[in-house]
Amino acid sequence: MIFAKLFEKKPNEKTIAKFWNEFQTRSDFYLDVIVKDDEDTDDYIFVRSCIKDGLKRCCIDAEVAYDFSFDTESEPMRFVFHHANDAYLKRVGESLAKQYPASLKEKMLFLTAE
After folding, report:
1. The sheet that has 77-82: what strands, in order across it?
2. Origin, by domain of life (predicted)?
């Protein structure tokens, strides 16, 4: 138990800040594609892969799979990070939520879920 606490995996705050900075820079394009395009279009697949690559860097120490989704039916839309009930990924989700840019809050909400 003590060993686990000493070597507990922690989210990389700088990587998460960089993820949100990149996301914020491209947010108009990302959100436009996510809302207007079908999931099988090239633009939608490209946007998802860009976001997935960014999240991959944030979740580098993950031992279980994580996922993310968009709820475009709600107003504003929601970006949901799925942590699979893993302690490390929950901490990553908390850090993502803590660093979520205020400028995006009117356009899109950020949530974490199992």
Report:
1. 67-71, 77-82, 108-113
2. Bacteria
Domain count, the chain: 1
User: Does a structural domain hold residue 2?
Assistant: no
By CB atoms closer than 10 A (0-12, 13-18, 19+), residue 48 is: middle
1 pLDDT more than 60: no
Which pair of tokens denotes residue 63? 């031992």
Residue 3 resides in a domain: no
Instruction: Read off the tokens for 21.
Output: 């900075």
Find the domain containing 73 and state its range.
Answer: 11-113
- What's the predicted TM-score (pTM) here? 0.91
Handedness of CA 109, 102, 39, 18 (dihedral sign): negative
Beta carbons of 71 and 102 less than 8 angstroms apart: no
**Residue 19 in domain:** yes
Distance CA 59, CA 93 (A): 9
